[in-house]
Amino acid sequence: MYAEAGSIRRIIEETGDTWAVVGLSSNEGRAAYGVAQVLQRYGKRVVPVHPRAETVHGEKGYATLAEIPFPVDVVDVFVNSDLAGAVADEAVAIGAKAVWFQLGVVDEEAYERTRAAGLSMVMDRCPAIEIPRLG
Questions:
Q1: Among 24, 86, 28, residue whose Cα is nearest residue 49
Q2: Distance, CA of 72 to CA of 91 (rounded, Å)
Q3: How many CA atoms lie within 13 A of 125 on its CB side?
Q4: C-alpha–C-alpha distance, residues 30 and 57, integer Å
Q5: In percent, how much of the chain has pLDDT > 90?
């Protein structure tokens, strides 16, 4: 419902391999931790973005998207829906190619703004579920 036909495949297979995971910390009990492991297993570079800027899964963390000193292809968002729109706007500002809102993260206005800015976007889905479905 929150992805155009082909958007999921295009983001995962064609958009690029550097994924900033907003909300990723070293807390192994959080969904972001496990999803980041899956992304790495499928060849993605995972960049943790969290106020504590922790190193996670061997990758240096950053407190904000703007602090990442290299291009980011996809911004994967693990924050509450009320904060997600601002993250999507930051993704546009840093020149990301796509935004992915995780399961339960829904902001229809952010979806429209992000798509209007020319980025691909998926909302209320999980790449750790979608990648294996692609075969």
A1: 24
A2: 9
A3: 19
A4: 14
A5: 92
Compute the average pLDDT of residues 75-104. 97
Residue 119 tokens read as 């980025």
Angle (CA) 46 66 50, round 5°: 50
Euclidean distance between CA atoms 11 and 93, whole angstroms = 18
What are 90's two structure tokens?
A: 């930051």
**Would you give the DSSP letter of residue 106?**
-
Q: Which residue has the tokens 């691909």?
A: 120
Query: Helix H segments across the chain?
Result: 7-14, 31-41, 81-94, 108-116, 127-134
**What letter represents residue 12's amino acid?**
I
Residue 38 backbone dihedrals phi, psi, to 5 degrees = -65, -45
| Close Cβ partners of 41 (under 8 Å, ≥ 6 residues apart) | none
Is the pTM value of this prediction over 0.90?
A: yes
Helix (H, G, I), strand (E, B) or coil at 127: helix
User: Angle of helix 127-134 relative to helix 7-14, nearest 10 degrees?
Assistant: 90
